[in-house]
């Protein structure tokens, strides 16, 4: 990579970082190129030259965020961890993701950008579901999941949980001790409210 390409990458990363920071506090529709320009300390023309539009910039920032999360997830899942550790890791990854991008922002981005929605759907089908099934099968083989519980049962339970995840995260944030609240949710995920038999 020559000096020009390195400089171009630094500018692009600076713009994307400024945009990501703004997404933590603002709805996507309230973010303006002029505000990103000011925060990144670059001209509006520079932003348009690198990204073409605000929508393309938001898409690239979100895709970059998701791709990094997937890489981190796969790296951890390939490690030698128990099922409980893996599920706990997923929940705490979600907590960190929530701090960076609130679920409402993610939903708005996907409603506004059909290409982005298709990208997330593709990731879900090609990465999330196969990884989840793999984790379930490993859990059954190790005895961490009961043999009479099917992968479909676990996927349905996880889906119920994830459908309410933004509410759970809001409740965790309001509890005053998010980590302890989520640890309790992990405990209930595995053992219900009565504890391990």
UniProtKB/TrEMBL annotation:
PANTHER family: ACREF/ENVCD OPERON REPRESSOR-RELATED, TRANSCRIPTIONAL REGULATOR, TETR FAMILY. The keyword Transcription regulation does not apply. Residues 9-69 form the HTH tetR-type domain. It comes from the Bacteria. Pfam families: TetR_N. Keywords: DNA-binding. This is TetR/AcrR family transcriptional regulator. Residues 32-51 bind DNA.
